[in-house]
Each structure stands twice: as C-alpha cells, then as structure tokens.
Amino acid sequence: MRNFFLVLWMTCAAAPWAAAQAVTPAVTPAVTPATPHQAPSTFADPVLEARVLVIAEELRCLVCQNETIAASHADLAIDLRKQIRTKLVEGQSQQQILDFMADRYGDFVLYRPRLKASTIMLWAGPFALLMVALAALTMNIRRRRQSISSTKLSPADAERAQRLLDGAVVANTVPPANKATPANRTTPSP
Question: pLDDT tens per residue, the chain (190 residues)?
C-alpha cells in the first residue's frame, strides 16, 4: 500500500513537469472514435493502436483502480498508453512491457497478477473461504440433526400428538395460562 501511495504521489508531482516536457509523438495524431469501454485513441496507426489496447486491457489504472488503462480517461492512464506505444515502437514484446509495468508499479497494476508468494492469497483466498463456509455449513447441519434426533417424546406426548394429527379432540388439555376461560377464571371474593 505504501508503494501505491508513493507511485501516486510521484505521478502527481511529475505530471506538470511531464506536461511541460511533452515530446511530439512519432505517429501522426488523429482522434479515432472509442468503443464504450475504451478511452479515445489519438493516433492514426490502427495496427499499433490495436496492440496498445490489447496490452492496456491487461493493466489496471492506478487512479481509477477499477478500470483498465484502455478504458480510463485519467491522465496517468493516457501517459501509460503513450508509454506502451513507445515501447512497442522500440520493438518490445507484450510480455516485456507487462514485466516493465509490474516492476515499476507493482503487481497491483496487473489485472491477472502472477502466482508467487506475495500473491498466493489472491489466488487461494476464494477457495479457502469456500472451504471454510462449507465446513461451517456441514457442522451446522450435523448439530441440528443431532439435536432433533436426541429429542424423544414420552409415550403420553407421542399418543397426544398422534391424536392431534388424527383430528381427535384431546380432552385433558390445559389451556394456556394467559387466556382466561370459564374453567380457570377466578371470581374475586367480597
């Protein structure tokens, strides 16, 4: 988390300087329409732009955190797309660019982080939680079955229940204590 804030601070601090030092791109700018989930492209080479978007779909925007840098309109995402474009023009492969971004910004920038000791909980965590939930459910079901099976009715209660199920009126029932009936009503003495 500390690395994330450091990167965010460095990005904010470097943004005015980077804007002042902007270099004109090697490709002729031309605004192309964007799909609903992508930021608009500003470069005319469609093959290069398609490769940039494929790589950008694999990277998380560090500002938005819930979008790819291909879909984000944040200044940092635009700069990262330009950096991807530059590295592709230099001849680097997709894996080299992803490795560079992960080394520079950490595994958080990857939408599919690599499996290693620091990210094992990302991969194993959901399965571990599922196993814990299934174990808790199993224990709860067993406990309920045992409590139900351990409750036995006395022969009198079983006979009374059977008569109730058969629809017979039970004559020896005691009315509830909170309801007043003629049998249990008491008259005040004068």
Answer: 555 655 555 555 554 444 444 433 444 444 444 555 555 555 567 888 899 999 999 999 888 878 889 888 889 889 999 999 999 999 999 999 999 999 998 888 888 888 888 878 888 899 999 999 999 999 999 998 887 777 777 889 889 988 999 886 545 555 555 555 555 555 555 5
List the structure tokens of 151.
């409750």
- Please provide residue 90's backbone torsions phi and psi, each rounded to the nearest 5 degrees: -70, -15
Whether pTM exceeds 0.70: no
Phi-psi region of 23 (alpha: psi -120 to 50; beta: other; left: phi over 0): beta
Alpha carbon distance 59, 67 (integer Å):
9
Residues in Cβ contact with 110 at an 8 Å cutoff, skipping those fewer than 6 apart: 58, 59, 60, 98, 101, 102
C-alpha to C-alpha distance for 60 and 98, rounded to whole angstroms? 11
CB contact at 8 A, 60 and 69: yes
